[in-house]
Automatic annotation (TrEMBL):
Belongs to the yippee family. It comes from Cicer arietinum (Chickpea). InterPro entries: Yippee, Yippee/Mis18/Cereblon, Yippee_fam. One of its GO terms (molecular function) is metal ion binding. Pfam families: Yippee-Mis18 (PF03226). Keywords: Metal-binding, Zinc. It comes from the Eukaryota. Residues 12-109 form the Yippee domain. The keyword Metal-binding applies. This is Protein yippee-like.
Amino acid sequence: MGRLFVINLEGKIYTCKYCRTHLALYEDIVSKTFHCRHGKAYLFNKVMNVSLGETEERLMMTGLHTVADIFCVGCGSIVGWKYETAHEKGQKYKEGKSVLERYKVSGPDGSNYWINNEAHVSGSDADDEILQNQHFPYSISNTI
């Protein structure tokens, strides 16, 4: 097994909720209007300190995509997915970008999103426009 190198980011960062490994910069957010089956998710231009899983075809609420799960290199937790290919013309902007599931990361201010066991969204990447009338119960817990 090779030696693990972790990139430490500066500025407003998102970290793994479990091990605090730096994952992404606030300035790299493309959209905060994504949802996963557990609640909010953010689309980023780039993420760091992750490894890619196997690619697979997933039918999401916005169409068929080829994606790979992304894992935190610090603890191995699945923290989101990367879009390899979007099969719908209108979804091509997602290609090469990554989604971090908000409840699996801590925000720049140290906040965590916690899911309610009753919250569930079918699919994996519904935009707010599609789900504008649904409510996703979660609470914000600040950690110090």
